[in-house]
Specification:
Strand order of the largest sheet: 1-6-5-2-3-4
Shape: elongated
Largest sheet: 6 strands, mixed
Strand content: 5-15%
Structural class: alpha/beta
Length: 430
Amino acid sequence: MNFVEELRWRGMIHDMMPGTEEQLQKEMTSAYVGIDPTADSLHIGHLVSVMMLKHFQRAGHRPIALVGGATGMIGDPSMKSAERNLLDEATLRHNQESIRKQLAKFLDFNSDAPNAAKLVNNYDWMKDYTFLDFIRDIGKHLTVNYMMAKDSVKKRISSESNVGLSFTEFSYQLIQGYDFMFLYEHEGCRLQMGGSDQWGNITTGTELIRRKLGGEAYALTCPLITKADGGKFGKTESGNVWLDRRYTSPYKLYQFWLNVSDADAAKYIKIFTALSREEITALEEEQAAAPHLRPLQKCLAKEITVMVHSLEDYEAAVEASGILFGNATSEALKKLDEDTLLAVFDGVPQFEISVDELKAGVKVVDLLTEKAAVFASKGETRKLIQSGGVSLNKEKISDNETLVTTKDLVGNKYLLIQRGKKNYYLLIAK
């Protein structure tokens, strides 16, 4: 597999230094991507770089994931309007271990193959490097003029917000450049990859390697991912879409990809999956023939949910989706864990009811009017039940005298009321 060709047809190349493709065709090459460890989970914004490393390993090359423990203590000015909060070492180490576990879903760290992936942390080689040694050994090789010419620096200095650029952040590209040089010397790393906003920082590294070591290193960046409507990729109303289920449930991750537009699905399926060109072409033809069936979105959502979590989590997400949008049974509802149930019914009206009253049993008509104001009147409720328009936990209620008890609670806490096909109400017993 030709790595550059693979990335090219997937639309994943923005800039590439001359000689990069020739280097990769010549021999197995090591390349690294830097990952910011400011959280103990990756989010889907990181996935582009991670997929680059995945394709790199698939092509027979050796991927290195660098967790920026040292640079995470400073903050990268690229595309940022203000400095970030600085983290302590214990937090960074915890974040690194969490990120490693997530990366292991995409990269092979444990095989005996010569291109097994490696995880490094730049804090390990920066923590004992004194400031005086650093500015003497590294700082003298790059001029301020060279560093000031970088777009990320120019944008911050000319920013109308008058935030300016601290010396700490200004030095970021020097430290990232030294990372590249360190990996060049100690890991034989010849290539750094990242988003297009990193081009300036990456080329500072290639320049430092050239000036200090007389060596030749390369740079390759991918485009920053955007949405077809101009909105920011990877953000929802509740914030980032995370890979850790504690922050974004598998169901919500699945729903995120399932609900992207047709134009975005056609782009994302190339970037965020390892499906072949033939498989993607076949899906595109299916989409063109029957866009309402959304084969691209369904396949995209499946591939990513399985890759990030598991096949079981994907199947549970599909089943959960069926509860809200299809003809799922009460058994499917009862199989949901609490987080998924709350995620599925996020935004539907909720009512609190007394668990003690349910122990004795409450008539369904009283429950839906007096105990929880789901319906306006008992008369309306009776009519709806008689016409088959009310369901409890996905089962139609046929008798106005039905008693609802604690035995009906899903997860010992919830009752799901449905009016017609689309109107849901969640009753929470406390």
